[in-house]
## 1
Amino acid sequence: MKRDSGSKQRTPKKVTHMPDGQGAVLSTAAGQALTDELRSSFQGEVIDRGHPGYDEARAVWNGLIDRRPALIARCSGTADVVEAVRVARKHRPLVSIRGGGHQVAGSGVCDDGLVIDLSRMKGVHVDPTARTARAQAGVTWGELDRETQLHALATPGGEISATGIAGLTLGGGFGFVMRAFGLSCDSVRSLEIVTADGAVRTVSREEEPELFWAARGGGRGLGVVTSFEFGLHPLGPEVAGVLVLHPYERAEEVLRAWRDATYTAPETVTPELLLWSVPADPAIPQELHRSNCVMVGAVYGGPPGDAATAALAPQRELGPPLMDLSGTVPYVALQSANTWRFPDGERYFMKSHFMDELSDEAISTLVEWYSRRPTPESLIVVRTLGGAVARVGPDDSAFAHRSARYNVSVDAGWRDPALDETAIGWARSAWDAMKRFSSGGTYLNFAGLGEDANELRGAVFGSHEERLEHTRAAYDPEGLFAPAAGRP
């Protein structure tokens, strides 16, 4: 593989373990004591290493992650979470918290500790009159969209329907309509959280506002969030969108034209550009399948019609395309359109930069590094922020990158474990090469693996890092969730 003269290719570290500074590796006796005590008070399922469902229960979306917890507490509801926290506080194992499980770093599972697993907590209640939805932490975006779209309502979140609402929202939450409606965390009205003392707290702007501030973009380590109340926006059931495939030979030209078009895009439009492979979709001629291309996408955050067509037009007019698949689609179909391209169990690595500008030199660097990608599943994504994302005050939530114009994510995907070093090395080196164009920030949900956490902590939380640490210490003075707070 070619090397960039200004970027050092690094050998990936072992990825099955995370750097955890607190929490005990349980002895056999201690693990049994914890298991026995939890089983005596637990309504859900307690899964130890001898359980026939252990391997399935410890598996996460990213097949690169292979961790072996001592115990998995699969909670049936908030009371089970309280019991798991109580037992953890007594026995002090290493603790991780799992929601939907669709996270690159796989931080929901840990080695040799206790996993508090909320993935079976799937309740959703929609109030169409109040335009709110209450959803438990194991719900995925596809499951939430299914319920809210019965009333032509949506809350912004996710680009893959299998993504869990909890992790995405706590880290900020990019989505197809974020310029119109903000990040996922911006639509949170309140949330229920079990803190380290075992208390069940409902937090909002009025109740425990500092914890509410931290939970919107501050990620892990505040407690166990059991449910979210989202505000909903009128959207759907049909939405207007752009999907135009351009020849890869014109990649730099299309990127420059797309960048210029983003400057004048209205807030109702959320543009996105991908350097990727043509999907093997029946609507696309077979001879184009898996060939390199430039994908230009955009979604209109309002009803389809003449206004939508006019607002989206600049995203379609970037030169002669390979194919133009733009049109009106059901919102639930839009949200799930790419899910099949990121199947469970394959191997993934993603790392990103926030950027204030996308210079011609940055564009050339992106295209050059994309040309070195190791597999057809690997891609580079440029997302456009601004609009409703930027209208939220910089200190209104823990999300620290309100003023950035773009996020550039280098996403490696592959199947063969023999390619681990090559695929991760490509993504790290491409990220290194783009660092000089960055505004200095990294998106928490695309922040690499566990070994990247310390290096990127300041880049993820920026000026909010100290305030977050104070908030965590106030609610968890003994550091029960400190290892979780240190993970991406």
## 2
Amino acid sequence: METNTKAYLVGGPRDGSSQDAGDQALLEIEIDGMIHRYIRTTQQHGEGGVVYNYDGMVAPGGGEPGVEDPAARVASPKADAEGQ
């Protein structure tokens, strides 16, 4: 059985585009130093892949002083994996 790994992005800066997402539930794309998140849905895009909805933008390091409490931040899993 062939597994389709094509993600069709809905909303955000990459609206209407597609890319390979593997089997990830959360797709993070870095654009101009910010992380844009897309979340996998149960919707299929024709026969060609899965729809991912835009979930927002975060700084790679999470909260910034004066914006939110940096100690209580929820950082990007991608940024954490890269040691940011």
## 3
Amino acid sequence: MAPVGEAAALVLVAVLWGSTGPFLRTGAAGLEEVRCQGRLQQLLAEIRFLGLNYKYMVPFLLNQGGSILFYLTLASADLSLAVPLCNSLALIVTLVTGRMLGEDFGGKRAVAGMLLTVLGVTLCVAGS
């Protein structure tokens, strides 16, 4: 895969991973009310609840599609660049998506910590 194609695939992975997290949390709302007797019955009831919930399954499948794309891209991409790039971009996309959905992300200190993490990763990647 060409370097531009690799970069585009990694950005797409980051968008898929980052944007689906807040939707997965929203889609799983109500899971804590699922109650059954016994551990196995509880597990099966929770799997059924999530598996039949399109608000959970659509983001889950998109997220897993991102994982498959990441796996395929790693065949030709530089691992020391792919992982920090995907994680940093996914963090930013998660923050933006969560904010758009009205999630509380911990205030200015949490955002500053995330941005400093992204800056640190960027410096490490740029130095290699």
